[in-house]
Amino acid sequence: MPQDAFSIFHTAKELNNLLVGGKIDKINQPDKDSLLLYLRANNQNVMLSVSAKAESARVCLTCEKLPAPINAPAFCMLLRKHLSHAVIKEVSSVPFERIIKIIFESKNDLREETTKIIYAEIMGKYSNITLTENGIILGAIKQSPSIEGLRPIFPGLKYVLPKPQDKIELSDKACAIEALKGYNGCDLPSFIFNTFKGVSYQTALEIVERYFVKINQFTFDIKTFNIEDFYKHFLDFYNNTDIKANVVLQRDTKDFFVTDYITIDKDKTYYNSINEAIDSYYTKRNNAKSFEDKKRKLSDIVKAYEKKINKKYQIALEKLLNCADMENNMIYGQLLIANLYRIPVGASSVTLENYYTESQEPITIKLDNKLSGKENAERYFKKYNKEKKTVKAVEPQIEELKSLLSYISSLFDEIELCKSMIDFIEIEEELQLIGLIKSQTKSKKTKSPKSVFRTYNYLGFDIFVGRNNLQNERLLAEANRTDLWLHTKDYHSSHVIIRTETKPVPDMVLLFAAELCAYYSKAQNADKVPVDYTLRKYVKKQPNGKIGSVFYTDYKTILVTPNPHD
């Protein structure tokens, strides 16, 4: 990952130009590993994000205002105590290390000038944010005791930089030249990466490639390798590279870069500053992760519910299966009553003509040899009546459970069709209504935002597409009787409304809306999807039906290819 010491060095330089003289107005800690510093710098309000998350450690200006917890964590309270109204004096990076150092000037309780330093260590899972004064640790977002092999980070201890890599610093010319003399013609980018501090393999590859281009040599020959010239090129690139911040979000290359790497031949998005690029990259990545986490969480909740209902359904089917011989029990009882005189005392079975069939073939009936013929008949009648009651009770349960499983399938479909976080709002509300999620207690002033319908305008007609079952109900309730309503035939889908305003709907508009309906359905990947359409007045909510369930009449069907019409 190119967030190496080289990238951090240039990020810190840019932050120094933007923030020196800036004054802290507010400090929040949105989560256990991140800080948000609100600053007034260069006559404008800015937010500085400092994160020690393993997957997204960074220091950059941000536009993403994250909510603060109701109760501030201890480290946040410590920072408020020491840095409230503090002024930034310098932002720099520790030479050839992935550490940004922010120096503040503030006043203590005696109104005396004091200097505090935040060290933001950007090192993957070892990332940390530490506040120090006079070299002594005041606190850290991740504290660690003194354990053999680990650097202790604890209030009152001396702050010590992480153990350096066993590599050469580029600023040490003599050592650097000596190391380059040891190059034996192997893979040069790997040699640079393994020998020198501060550069990732991708950056080492970029340095080498640019050197080849500069000397017009595309097949490297160790005999013509000018060590002094290469060292000068290496040092100049590291310290004075042209800043052209960009982000690449291709599948095999997802990262931000402080300059335009010629070794990466991908579509790039360019930004005015390194901070904008970093903020955009991590905001998009974190939003994508939050989206997938939320999607997985809701899917897991519905899966657990489906498992519970499936278990009930299987039990009900088993009960019904156990009653499969119900009619036979009635026949056995009737035949025994009609042939009591033919049943020997103490018999364990009897063979009788079955006059309930045309051929009257003989049938063998099992008996309890401890009971009389009449008592055996009564036993079969009793079993028949018990199974009859069971069937009468279980059949409606099975239908209800089948309906519920179909509804659960619709929940899976609407979760799968979600495209952004806003799509989850009413799905969560729906899950609360059916008792799968505990209702969150909110203040009376706080109202849950309502997600808006997917809205289109085509050839002058407004078209609305529901995002979930709750929206489908709301869409139906708000539609006029003369509006056109669409739904896929035999598949769960969003409800679609064409606002007609009593005007006839052209075929092109109907086709457009039907393609949308097919796309936002379980048949999204099919070639041809049947879509039913009818006037809103012919669509009714099912009595005692699940959320979003309807029945409709007077409809026609159109075959379309799903299309999102982005």
What does this structure look like?
This protein starts with a helix and ends in a 6-residue tail after the last strand. It contains twelve helices and 22 strands. The mean pLDDT is 91. The strands form six sheets. A six-stranded antiparallel beta sheet has the order 15-16-18-17-19-22. Strands 5-6-7-8-9 form a five-stranded antiparallel beta sheet. A four-stranded antiparallel beta sheet has the order 1-2-3-4. With 566 residues, it is α+β, with helices and mostly antiparallel strands. Strand 8 and strand 9 form a beta hairpin. Helix content is 37%, strand content 22%.
- The percent range for helix content is 25-40%
How far is it from the N-terminal to the C-terminal residue, by CA?
A: 33 Å
Low-pLDDT segments: none
Q: Tell me, rounded to a whole number, the average pLDDT.
A: 91
Radius of gyration: 37 Å
Quantity of strands, as a count: 22
Spatial order of strands in the largest sheet? 15-16-18-17-19-22
Q: Strand pairing plus helix content: what structural class?
A: alpha+beta
The structural domain count equals: 4
What fraction strand? Answer: 15-25%
Overall form: elongated
Largest sheet, strands/sense/barrel: 6 strands, antiparallel
Supply the number of helical segments. Answer: 12
